[in-house]
Amino acid sequence: MRIRPCGARVVGLPPTYGALIVVVMKRRTIIGGGLGVVAVALGARLAAGALLEGASGTRSAQEFAVDKSDQAWRAQLSPEAYQVLRKAGTEAPGSSRLNSVKAVGEYRCAGCDQTLFASDTKYDSGTGWPSFYDYVDGALGFKTDYKMLIPRREYHCSRCGGHQGHVFKDGPAPTGLRYCNNGVALSFVAAEQDRTG
Fold first, then answer.
1. Residue 140 backbone dihedrals phi, psi, to 5 degrees
2. Residue of 46, 50, 48, 72 lying closest to 60 (CA atoms)
3. Other CB atoms within 10 A of residue 140 CB
4. Which pairs count as long-range contacts for 40-48, CB under 8 Å and 24+ apart, including other chains?
5. For the whole prediction, is pTM greater than 0.85?
6. Consecutive H or E run containing 40
7. Disulfide: which of 54, 73, 88, 192 matches 163 by Cβ 3.0-4.6 Å?
8. Residue 8 DSSP one-character state
9. Which long-range contacts (CB under 8 A, 24 or more apart) does 24-27 make?
């Protein structure tokens, strides 16, 4: 379709309708250009995040007390746990056996066995992932994640860097936070089991 200047007559249409076509085309151009600018800005943020995180998707730039080769992590972890802990993947909602655990004990990093959450901070968020409203002091590290194009607060084990999940501001009192964790990134140790070894 050829765009005619405002006021030019389109054959078979009144002059005002022809002007309307020109205005709509201009709005599409403006909206399309605006979306292009937004896409470029988001792409730049994603690229910056990828550079900070490293090309392989691991946190190689940051040092952790437990530091293993990729090959060692693959040998230690199940394929599902490796994908979540080392590649920041996400398990399917409702797939974790830890969703139904109500026992007293500790939730530990499946990569290095560091205690991350106490059972008394766990609650049913209705999301399909194990959720907690608070964590053990010093057990987690944080960074901003742009993988969903909007910034989210990602958290990981402070000892091995294993990805655990994301924190949201829709949790219960007293913190108002929801630490939404991948169950495959955790192991549960019951209080009785911890005392007996």
1. -120, 150
2. 50
3. 21
4. 42/146, 42/149, 45/146, 46/146, 46/147, 46/149
5. no
6. helix 15-53
7. 88
8. P
9. 25/1
